[in-house]
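Q: Hi! Curious about what Tetratricopeptide (TPR) repeat protein looks like structurally. Here's the sequence.
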Amino acid sequence: MTDRQFAFGSGHSRIQQAGRDIVNHYAAGEEPPRISPPRRVSAAARMLFGTHPPVPLGRPTTWLRPDADIVPVQPRPEVDELRRWCVEQGRSRLRLVCGRGGQGKTQLGRQLTGQLRELGWLAGFLDAAGTRWPEIEAALGSKPVQRVDTLLVLDYAENQALTLNRLADLVRRSPRVRVLLLARHEGGWWRDLVDEPAWSGMVDPVALPLGSLTDQLPPDRVRAVHGEAARCFSDRLGRAVPELSWHERRCTTTLDLYADALLQVLDAESPVRSGVPDDPVADVLAHERRHVRQVLRAEGVVVSAADLDWMLLAAYLVPAGTLVEAVTALEALPLLEEVDLAKVARVLGGLYPDEAGGVWAPPRPDRLADTHVLAVAAGSVSDGDWVEAAVALCGNDEQPVRLLLRCLSTPRADLVAIRRVEQAVGELVVRQPQTCLLPVILAEPRRFEAEILQAVRPNGLDLADLQNIDYVLDSLDLSVARANVTLAISTRLVAETTPGEGASDEEYFWYACTLNRLSSGLMTVGLDQQALAASEQAVTILKQVADINPDIYLTALATALSSHSVDLSVAGRLPEALIAAAESVQIYRKLAEQDPGSFLPDLASGLGSLGVSLSHVDRVQEALAHIEESISIYRRLAHDNPAHLHGLARSMYCLGTNLAEVGRSEEALAASAEAVELYRQLVVSNSDAYLPQLATSLIMFAQARVITSLELPIALTAATEAIDLCRLLAGQLPQRYAGYLALANQILTDIRGKL
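A: Let's find out. The predicted structure is below.
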């Protein structure tokens, strides 16, 4: 958590999971359902991993599912590495496997969990859907799970920020539990998670890449696997193995390799093509469409190829719990011919049964559905026709927007299709923000920033829904990628939630929380004066409620004073900044004496801020004493918990600046060097959060050497790097970082003048 983040909630409210990152906010006094903990490991397994009915294998495309077990499983070296990670003592608790769609991530997870179960582990894919969190909490806290080694595999982790946020505390309280994440990309979500305080000390920051079998195996072995798969598919169909051809360019992923083998078996009797060059998955889907059309015709339903594509889109994209919901989805389609939609829904439900009990579910592996969605988007008459049809079909449901977001990471996707899917997601955000806004904010805030900002403006999303989203974002680390979005949300909430006459202390408290989040957002984008006004109002309110009830509100006041001190300092109101920082430290010292485990980090942070304020009014010796006390505390904290490294880095930065001012040159150079090194470590795990601090620490590093005229060649390199970073940051947030860029350029000029 950064200095400018301000999160409350203990005893007031908390976030509960409902569905894949769908949030219900339980107010004080409300509780989620209570579930009795399991007494046996088998019961815990059902609560964590759900039940698994037999895999339907009636259609050839189902044979490509990871759990179909039609073709022999190929050993992967990554499985051996992950098994060692699980069984060896002293390793991290969470790892990420990252690979493009179709590389075999799910199969890798199945191999690993199967091997671990043979060793006596409780292992499987975490079923975090629906309202199952009470069951997951009960299972992870139960005695059977506490006594057995456990691995939880979470697929599509890049879209499950809230699941991971909630899981962190459960895993920390269960020392024998490990978590394996599977994702298509690392992106900003992974950097945020690595730096998330809730996961501190538990995460291996280096993702394990998963490539294609075609890259890992020798060419002759790849062709042998291809041929072996073709034999298995032929046996399943009761046919002779056809004469096979090999085209390496068609098999860039593991799924492509198996899809090409299946395609050649299917083509041997009656070939058909999708029209997409070198895409065996698309060609297998062409066989699938022909099969579905034949089944419909056998039921007396004759449809055109275009109408069939739309019908399959409904089954692949929109969940349907009942036949009525399925028919409603089909009615939203731009079909050219009138047919019996109830009969169509029943046929599609038979072909694509929902294992969870609904009418239909998209085919697996997921790339089949993704490929079809992209094909329909690309084949639509125009952008507008596609967008209107997609929005009408998806309706007010969050699952379709998640699938559309997933499509954007499909390998070798057509650029027109990607653009049109992006347009559909943007329109869903604007037209259906209640369900579609939050998943997009969490997954792709920069890509859809314009549409997100349109959805959260006044007269847009309902206030209650906007507050829910605000609570969620406040539970996560501050992110530059979401800076403009969080600012827009806070701005509207402050404008629309001002307490009226007779408001309670709690209402004023929550309003102060919103003001402080607004201040953080304003400061992040460089609007310093507005940030100061907001934080000043927050402090005023919190002082009033803390006077009445210090046991509840004193902690919030201390945090607000610390943030307000920073804002005052930036505004040049240095004596007032010093007073606010001193008040904050006074409160934190008292709280840390009562509960050091909870408040010692806050005291360390406050001492550092107080040191900065003292140095600003030329009381440098006093500043050094407070900063050195802060560093002493942070070193102890960071030794046990790497999450405090950023606090140590910040205090080392302040120490170097103040040592240079009193002429302790060698110590200043050493402190500035340590600050840069610490920030380099932090940038590796989360560049989005720590790149700005690395840039400013490099400026201080170079400036200290200019002042002392020592190590100037090293200073030249540091200043050059600082300019590059500041230029990058100023391109994103010019109001915030243009001044730093100018300072770095001036330091570079000074260095060259001394050389």
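A: A fun detail: DSSP finds 33 helices and seven strands in the chain.
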